[in-house]
Amino acid sequence: TRSINLAVIPGDGIGQEVVAQGLKVLSAVLPQDVKLETKEYDFGARRYHATGETLTDADLDALKRHDAILLGAIGDPSVPSGVLERGFLLKLRFAFDHHVNLRPSKLLPGVASPLAGQPEIDFVVVREGTEGPYTGNGGTIRKGTPHEVATEVSVNTAFGVERVVRDAFARAQARPRKKLALVHKNNVLTFAGHLWTDVFNKVAEEFPEVTTEYMHVDAATIYLVTQPERFDVIVTDNLFGDIITDLAAAVSGGIGVAASGNINPGREFPSMFEPVHGSAPDIAGQGKADPTATILSVALLLRHLGHNAEAERIETAVAADLGERGDAPRSTEQVGDALAARVAG
Amino acid sequence: TRSINLAVIPGDGIGQEVVAQGLKVLSAVLPQDVKLETKEYDFGARRYHATGETLTDADLDALKRHDAILLGAIGDPSVPSGVLERGFLLKLRFAFDHHVNLRPSKLLPGVASPLAGQPEIDFVVVREGTEGPYTGNGGTIRKGTPHEVATEVSVNTAFGVERVVRDAFARAQARPRKKLALVHKNNVLTFAGHLWTDVFNKVAEEFPEVTTEYMHVDAATIYLVTQPERFDVIVTDNLFGDIITDLAAAVSGGIGVAASGNINPGREFPSMFEPVHGSAPDIAGQGKADPTATILSVALLLRHLGHNAEAERIETAVAADLGERGDAPRSTEQVGDALAARVAG
Ligand SMILES: CC(C)[C@H](C(=O)O)[C@@H](O)C(=O)O
Ligand SMILES: CC(C)[C@H](C(=O)O)[C@@H](O)C(=O)O
């Protein structure tokens, strides 16, 4: 498209600060003839406290009209755990059928990994985004009594698993190493695990060039710290994906640089791009937050909308910036300015 | 007790080799007047292929008569995924109500962590062992069709959560740092998460000296690689415990030294002790497997039976052995011999 109509959700805590830098870099990278329109939405803790609302049907209707969504972070200790997560973040992922949750991990030059030996890390996790233990199925009986029982139901469908597995195979096929690992726990979660494994093996037949492996999620955490270089593309369930992508972010430079896309590949709904990190209320408002993860999320957003050259410009700028930055701490704005200058240059 | 009547389950792959060394060290450490009786059971892949059985009611009756169980490893690629896990390992944990799954992580001197800077690591994970997503609840409809739906139900009870949380608080109270972290995902798995959190907060009132914190499982994986020294005791759900204890083992020296106990604290049933590692069929029969994890599991077994001095002797021997061993690779037997000599000495 030669125009981008973007919904911007700064959200809570450091969300405002990092999104401002994301937009700065986005404006700087876009060619003159691409018209950027943005509309800001006030979702998050403030709105919840003021109105009791997290995400209404009218909100969804409004968001639906955008080409994509850029999100900072949602969450604040003043709101009970789960309210904004289920009421906003997950509600949006489910409403807009964001079934491909894309989380690349790359250890960039000049970035320190907590792993000894600074291994080469360059893989992407394709996390399912609309099923598994995230559906909100389950319930509680006899709440607050010694006889309380609480259940959580992981729901997995052939339809849902196949589309995300297929997406992951296509991504693996397009990468030089062409490797895909399925991560699950099919020796214990046998119902869901066998569905995932059967679908994975069936789709694999259509991608003979892709080398596949299966790994239990517990073993995957070991490999992520002992042999992260072995991974190319990983496809996994919603909850396992949540867990291993935080670990992946940690080993590849930290959540300060971890980007993500909540993608609806068929574009029936706008996709949403956000840093993996949270709202970090402890450092909010101090200009300390690293906006790099948000800026890399902008690159994912651009690639999703077909602006591949601009996405690449941002990624190259981030790599150069991290490799050449000094030891002195930089403010949120300084990082944004440096990257805006690089992508414009 | 002045006698130990032990069930020994060598199992598959390297299980035989490591258990032999575990028994060697056990015999060496016990004082003359403690009578050790052992009975070997042939569970695992061989028995399954020969008879189709994994663990019968008669087997459970026989095992029940022992004071404790030492297990090597169960699992072989020739058996479909899930058959031995659900049919033997988990069946036994559930039948003998092993609700405290104890997994200590300590980075011993001379052991290399994959983490840069070799942080100080000394914590224990108390993993719930009889509930959560491990219950086998759930099912599949329309199997093998494009309309298949597979569910997994995580079952959590106030009874089950409270007893393991209480056990973890008692362990934290008994340690110098007196810190306990609850690891869950209560912002997404709100039914189970709120039960865990409420029970945790209620039991905390009885342990005013214990410092508590709550952490989402995804964040916990980050801290395990960036700040593992912050942990003292962790209590968590069955599946989260499975995942983070493999990661914990990896950062604290690898699964070659990770021990575990499947404990029934009330002693209605024998507890089972096993290395965290699996049967490693790729190196089985070559005398290459590290028996240290099994030998440390023997220490946990001895402590459970009240032989604290002997447990400590083993742990001290392992620490000394690892600290003083050379660079040359040692066989399974050499490690066992070295440790047997140290504990007897
Ligand atoms: C905040 C929470 C709902 C979310 C998740 O669990 O998906 C977050 O951890 C993430 O990874 O985006
Ligand atoms: C083999 C499997 C059933 C088991 C588990 O998931 O508990 C193992 O991974 C463990 O951690 O003991």
UniProtKB/TrEMBL annotation, chains A, B:
Site (Important for catalysis): residue numbering on this chain = 134, 185
Q: Where does substrate bind?
A: 93, 103, 127, 218
The molecular function GO annotations come to: 3-isopropylmalate dehydrogenase activity
Q: What is its EC number?
A: 1.1.1.85
Tell me the enzyme class. oxidoreductase
What keywords are annotated for this sequence in UniProt?
Answer: Amino-acid biosynthesis, Branched-chain amino acid biosynthesis, Cytoplasm, Leucine biosynthesis, Magnesium, Manganese, Metal-binding, NAD, Oxidoreductase
Required co-factors: Mn(2+); Mg(2+)
Cofactor annotation remark: Binds 1 Mg(2+) or Mn(2+) ion per subunit.
Under PANTHER family, the record lists: D-MALATE DEHYDROGENASE [DECARBOXYLATING]
The family database entries (NCBIfam families) matched by this protein are listed as: PRK03437.1
Protein name as annotated: 3-isopropylmalate dehydrogenase
The scientific name of the source species is: Streptomyces beihaiensis
